[in-house]
Design the sequence.
């Protein structure tokens, strides 16, 4: 058998994380392990914690039955190094809890939780009369129970609101006083730029758009803490990442720096055939006109019937397949038309039959970038030329095409040297309808046509749609013009070198100027001395090796710039003192609201020392939120708060998810919803329930809305949003894909809980689990994360054979006392959401194997009140606005400060919540109050 | 039992795998100079586990009857062992499959002395400079639809696998053009001097720091040192010729097409001593239709919810994997390479439908162990043995002097 060795003693990293505010524990990040030396399993840490403590009196917490519930509620949750909290180095000064608290406890708690009864094996009596190192965590948990109204339980006599508030305030005061008496305040640990921040910073420093050619795409994922990638302590710098930094900096500088002559801007015109390589439909089309010695009038993009080989709907511009010679912005124009959209039907038939039918919309042309890189020429592997875009690729531009009239459509996009455009027919017409169309078309050919068809279709090359009237796009002409240069050298080059030509003598100044912006602070000349030496050495070496002096100097300064962008001053956000200086405050603001560097205005304000004033920070924050760069805040904050980054990480098995391109639509809906509230200072209650949301055609179909009620709203201006926000695609014009604000006729879809993004990211792509959705909800919306499941509890096994529902099986699970405590809190919200499937479509029945169906019961009990379904549940949720607001503030602060919050932060949070309460908790207010807060200017 | 050193004819082996390789003299010399006992390791893993009844034998011991998906292993009896009741003591579904080869969750890495380093990286860390690739991490396709997330560095970074067989082939056998080599060498030099400069920047920064920030910056110093080392090693290999394979560059394709090719390429990589440590991930993008079932996605089949049709489909997807695994083992075994190659097959998911990470499917082959077909480890809570005990055993056999790996509590003696 195995030879056992004694356990090494637990490795503790010496960090205290007792997230006192609301035990903001990451349920999916921390869990239980049987052999984990650093076991993040709270159920067992509680007894350990207390046994190690110097409690005067015994606190009994046996590991059995109903005691789990309370043990869990009082548990220490984020564990790394919990023992350190008991160490002398972080000791605080004991603080008395006061007589209001004692009065409250003896009236409402001690009947059950004194030493002799200790119901649930929890005794508050044992915590004594003051908050100490040993009892701090116990008191924090007790405070949370009182604040959230979890205790006393609903069936017992409830304290009055004022009684509860007085007690909670007094207890909080004691807990905070203790936390603040500790000699070292929890400070933000040196923050490394996250992936997004790195890209956004380079974009703003160099005036480049790097979304399409993302230099960070190979970067490792950043560690997330409570969903946020911005917590300094947890961000790792690895050798893998440093190599990526070297490569990314070089890549970006190659784009930015241009010592060469101004490239010539050219206009390239192309006539059909544009695609000279693919066989099948377009091959036949080419051969047909070649045989007739006629110029080919157009080339066709058609939807491919099933079972027929070849790629029909995608096409590259072959004559440009070596790509454009110079990177830059290009104007691309296409003369195109939609044809035979109504083949075999009348328009009336289409629109009345199904407003969501792909052919009831205009035919849509899309464009992506393509390159020959990685193409195997020898094996004639032309996939990259003619194949479909890689899965998940979003078009650069899309256009709705008019029917039967060729029209010019145009866009301006960035193309790297070597890239060329590729086009495709976007409408997902559906293989079956195309097959039917094709089938029907044979019967329409007369004898002569049939003979022509047979002749052209030599060897059964499946050219059918060339002769038949099936939906398609005809491309007549393509023009590529560029690069479009507003100035030379371009803005990116000037951002580094200024307007004067670079000479080696300027190296020191160039490095220092660039470093000041890249490192986000004033830089002394000697600070860049090692980098200047690097430049000088590179110059000498190159000249010795026979390089012309000018090229040697130019290559050398690029090497220096690369060092500036690899240096720790760039990679890390240095904060030197407990009270931050102006530049450090500016940097906090800009990374909070823009995920990027401060701009010129903010730097000026930083230099003046003005940002120490809350009003100044508020003014700047107002200005910054009005700037388009604040879209990064919307995206990054939603990724952290709602875990939006998980959307699509377990690819859904629903074909409609991909066919209708639902994932980006889902993300857009939630971002628009958030952005509107942010920009208009709307009430955060809308997150819980609302009578509106944002949809495009695909989402409206997914939500089974009546398109006729949505359509008139397309293109309507909305306060707080720009028309750009509604476009699904970066360029072109495809109103049929745009988003619109829509009034909801019933409340099932209102608020975040009706949004497909949230419903998809809380499922696993295949089926739903009330437990996962429920725990997501209580953790991310209410800030009350459940503990992870204990080990060795039998799992709830999915069973789709049709005999039982998940609710039945969970019922059994909950009858297990070990599980009941947490599940009674998180399952009911999960049940309410069961009427949405794994990608958020409405349903009333479970589908089981063999076509069986089982009804869904979405009812439950929440906070002692029962609800019938999701609508009723949201009404109960709306009663918890202060709790929701408080959680949102904690999330905002975590993101802004780059650290986890502690008990010492409670006053900050309380202040913000109280200040925002009279106006009904408006989103922009909350963000601005965070910017004003003293915590923002402290390390 | 000691792993036997192979004294087989290499030409013979190469005929066996259907490829002839002209060995450059340097390779041969390198081989001659290498230590007598070369140890190799390969891990093959999927993200969704294995249906129990088709993978775990019901009987125990060398002569245990083989269940359906192990039928291809009949000819390998005595060369492999399936373990029952081994896992990492965690159960949080998909969120824990990534710890299969490390035993440590990524989020818990900070408190471990070796982070959440996976076994392949752990073994490979002592291969630096000895072979062209310290470790070869591959996948038979994209991680869309469920990645395996198998390989992790000491610093908690997920190592992305190479997902295209054509790229694996080129790395192993395609010679870079001379100008590209020169450009790469220049790039290595340039990066080296940049690192020198930023190292100095970091040192002056460090002097300004509080101790907690210094701790953080230490990561940066370490990373720089490591990059400098690997730049030097890579530069050294740059000008050594690659072995030649008499094999056309394979075409990329769906998982079912790439998987057999990948097995062949990894066998060749071991044979030519291009690497001694490799991983093959069988990702969630597995094209289920290729095994004659209705397309529904591998992940979809894994959520069978006990539906017999879906379970049957899942077994077929799994059968394809074990079939080609057995073929790979036989390919290594022919010329006697298997005895010095520890091949681990398994998954961080125990039951893909219930999303448990308990009782993981674990099959160990080769490595010169005294294999016993099926070993049932204790199931009782207090007697359970961590899977990391097996990994520690494997690490020691590989030649690493260590007394712990992940959450190991000792070694396994079942196969000695």
Sequence:
């Amino acid at each position: 058998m195995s030879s056992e060795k004694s356990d090494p003693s637990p490795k503790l990293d010496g960090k205290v994380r007792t997230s006192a505010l609301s035990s903001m524990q990451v349920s999916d990040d921390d869990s239980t392990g049987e052999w984990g030396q650093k076991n993040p399993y709270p159920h067992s840490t509680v007894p350990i914690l207390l046994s190690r403590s110097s409690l005067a009196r015994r606190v009994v917490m046996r590991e059995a039955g109903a005691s789990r519930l309370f043990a869990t509620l009082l548990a220490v949750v984020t564990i790394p190094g919990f023992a350190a909290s008991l160490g002398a180095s972080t000791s605080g000064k004991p603080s008395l809890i006061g007589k209001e608290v004692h009065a409250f406890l003896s009236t409402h708690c001690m009947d059950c939780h004194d030493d002799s009864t200790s119901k649930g094996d929890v005794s508050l009596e044992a915590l004594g009369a003051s908050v100490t190192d040993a009892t701090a965590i116990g008191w924090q948990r007790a405070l949370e129970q009182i604040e959230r109204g979890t205790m006393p339980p609903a069936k017992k006599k409830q304290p009055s609101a004022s009684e509860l508030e007085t007690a909670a305030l007094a207890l909080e005061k004691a807990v905070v006083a203790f936390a603040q008496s500790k000699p070292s305040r929890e400070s933000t640990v040196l923050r490394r730029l996250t992936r997004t921040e790195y890209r956004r910073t380079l974009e703003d420093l160099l005036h480049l758009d790097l979304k399409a050619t993302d230099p960070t795409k190979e970067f490792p994922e950043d560690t997330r803490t409570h969903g946020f990638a911005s917590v300094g302590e947890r961000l790792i710098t690895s050798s893998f990442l440093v190599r990526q930094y070297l490569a990314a900096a070089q890549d970006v500088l190659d784009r930015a720096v241009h010592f060469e002559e101004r490239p010539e801007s050219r206009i390239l015109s192309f006539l059909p055939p544009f695609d000279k390589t693919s066989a099948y439909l377009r091959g036949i089309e080419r051969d047909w006109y070649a045989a007739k010695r006629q110029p080919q009038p157009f080339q066709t993009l058609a939807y491919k019937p099933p079972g027929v080989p070849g790629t029909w709907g995608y096409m590259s511009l072959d004559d440009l397949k070596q790509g454009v010679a110079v990177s830059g912005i290009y104007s691309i124009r296409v003369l195109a038309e939609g044809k035979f959209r109504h083949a075999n039907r009348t328009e009336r038939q289409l629109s009345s039959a199904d407003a969501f039918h792909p052919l009831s919309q205009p035919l849509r042309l899309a464009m992506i970038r393509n390159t020959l890189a990685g193409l195997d020429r020898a094996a004639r592997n032309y996939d990259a030329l003619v194949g479909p875009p890689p899965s998940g690729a979003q078009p650069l531009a899309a256009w709705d095409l008019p029917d039967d009239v060729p029209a010019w459509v145009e866009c301006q996009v960035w193309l790297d040297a070597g890239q060329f455009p590729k086009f495709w027919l976007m409408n997902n017409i559906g293989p079956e309808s195309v097959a039917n169309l094709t089938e029907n078309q044979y019967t329409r050919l007369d004898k002569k046509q049939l003979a022509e068809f047979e002749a052209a279709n030599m060897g059964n090359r499946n050219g059918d749609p060339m002769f038949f009237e099936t939906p398609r796009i005809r491309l007549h002409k393509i023009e590529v013009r560029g690069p479009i240069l507003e100035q030379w050298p371009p803005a990116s080059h000037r951002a580094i070198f200024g307007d004067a030509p670079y000479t080696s003598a300027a190296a020191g100044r160039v490095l220092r100027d660039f470093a000041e912006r890249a490192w986000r602070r004033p830089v002394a000349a000697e600070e860049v001395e090692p980098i200047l030496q690097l430049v000088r050495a590179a110059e000498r070496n190159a000249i010795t090796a026979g390089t012309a002096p000018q090229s040697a100097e130019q290559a050398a300064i690029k090497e220096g710039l690369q060092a500036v962008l690899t240096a720790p001053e760039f990679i890390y956000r240095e904060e030197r003192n407990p009270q931050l200086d102006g530049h450090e405050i500016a940097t906090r603001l800009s990374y909070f609201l823009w995920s990027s560097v401060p701009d010129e205005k903010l730097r000026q304000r930083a230099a003046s020392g003005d940002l120490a004033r809350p009003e100044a920070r508020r003014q700047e924050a107002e200005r910054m939120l009005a700037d388009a760069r604040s879209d990064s805040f919307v995206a990054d904050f939603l990724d952290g708060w709602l875990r939006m980054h998980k959307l699509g990480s377990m690819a859904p098995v629903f074909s409609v998810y991909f066919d209708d391109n639902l994932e980006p639509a889902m993300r857009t809906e939630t971002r628009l919803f958030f952005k509107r509230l942010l920009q208009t200072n709307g009430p955060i209650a809308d997150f819980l329930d609302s009578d509106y949301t944002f949809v495009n055609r695909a989402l409206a179909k997914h939500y089974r809305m009546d398109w006729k009620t949505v359509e008139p709203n397309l293109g309507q201006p909305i306060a707080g949003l720009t028309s750009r926000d509604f476009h699904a695609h970066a360029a072109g014009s495809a109103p049929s894909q745009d988003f619109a604000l829509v009034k909801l006729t019933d409340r099932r879809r209102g608020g975040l809980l009706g949004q497909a993004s949230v419903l998809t990211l809380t499922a696993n792509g295949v089926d739903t689990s009330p437990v996962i959705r429920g725990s997501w909800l209580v953790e991310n919306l209410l800030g009350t994360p459940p503990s992870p499941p204990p080990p060795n509890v039998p799992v709830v096994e999915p069973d789709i054979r049709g005999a039982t529902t998940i609710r039945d099986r969970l019922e059994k699970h909950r009858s297990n006392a070990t599980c009941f405590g947490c599940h009674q809190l998180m399952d009911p919200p999960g049940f309410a959401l069961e009427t949405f499937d794994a990608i958020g479509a409405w349903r009333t029945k479970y589908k089981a194997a063999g076509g069986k169906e089982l009804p869904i019961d979405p009812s439950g009990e929440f906070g002692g009140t029962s609800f019938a379904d999701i609508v009723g549940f949201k009404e109960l949720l709306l009663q918890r606005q202060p709790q929701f607001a408080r959680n949102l503030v904690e999330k905002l602060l975590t993101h802004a400060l780059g650290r986890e919050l502690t008990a010492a932060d409670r006053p900050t949070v309380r202040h913000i919540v109280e200040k925002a309460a009279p106006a009904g908790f408006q989103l922009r207010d909350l963000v601005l109050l965070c910017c004003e807060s003293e915590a923002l200017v402290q390390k | 039992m000691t792993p036997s050193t192979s004294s087989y004819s290499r030409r013979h082996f190469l005929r066996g795998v259907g490829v002839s390789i002209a060995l450059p003299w340097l390779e041969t010399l390198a081989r001659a100079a290498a230590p007598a006992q070369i140890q190799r390791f390969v891990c093959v893993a999927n993200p969704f586990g294995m249906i129990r009844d088709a993978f775990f034998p019901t009987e125990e011991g060398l002569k245990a009857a083989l269940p359906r998906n192990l039928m291809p292993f009949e000819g390998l009896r005595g060369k492999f062992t399936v373990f029952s009741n081994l896992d990492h003591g965690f159960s949080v579904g998909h969120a824990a499959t990534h710890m299969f080869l490390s035993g440590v969750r990524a989020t818990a890495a900070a408190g471990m002395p070796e982070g959440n380093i996976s076994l392949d990286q752990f073994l490979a860390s002592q291969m630096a400079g000895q072979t062209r690739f310290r470790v070869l991490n591959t996948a038979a396709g994209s991680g869309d639809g469920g990645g395996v997330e198998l390989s992790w560095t000491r610093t908690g970074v997920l190592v992305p696998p190479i997902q295209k067989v054509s790229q694996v082939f080129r790395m192993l056998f395609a010679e870079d053009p001379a100008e590209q080599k020169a450009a790469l060498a220049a790039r290595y030099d340039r990066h080296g001097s940049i690192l020198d400069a930023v190292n100095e920047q970091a040192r002056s920064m460090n002097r300004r720091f509080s101790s907690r920030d210094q701790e953080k910056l230490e990561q940066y110093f370490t990373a720089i040192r490591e990059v400098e080392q690997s730049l030097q090693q890579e530069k050294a290999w740059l000008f050594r010729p690659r072995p030649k394979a008499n094999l056309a560059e394979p075409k990329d394709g769906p998982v079912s097409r790439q998987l057999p090719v990948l097995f062949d390429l990894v066998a060749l990589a071991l044979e030519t001593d291009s690497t001694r440590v490799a991983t093959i991930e069988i990702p969630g993008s597995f094209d289920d239709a290729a095994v004659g079932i209705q397309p529904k996605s591998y992940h979809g089949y894994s959520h069978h919810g006990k539906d017999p049709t879906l379970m049957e489909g899942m077994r077929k997807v799994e059968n394809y994997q074990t079939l080609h695994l057995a073929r790979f083992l036989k390919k290594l075994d022919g010329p006697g390479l298997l005895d010095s190659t520890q091949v681990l097959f398994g998954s961080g998911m125990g039951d893909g439908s219930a999303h448990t990470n308990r009782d993981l499917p674990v099959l160990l082959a080769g490595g010169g162990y005294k294999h016993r077909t099926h070993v049932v480890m204790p199931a009782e809570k207090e007697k359970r043995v961590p899977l990391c005990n097996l990994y520690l055993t494997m690490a020691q056999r590989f030649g690493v002097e260590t007394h712990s790996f992940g959450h190991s509590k000792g070694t396994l003696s079942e196969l000695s």
In short: Residues 1-32, 36-89, 376-381 of chain A have pLDDT under 50 and may be disordered. The CA atoms of residues 543 and 585 of chain A lie 44 Å apart. Chain A touches chain B through 87 residues (CB under 8 Å). The two ends of chain A are 53 Å apart (CA to CA).
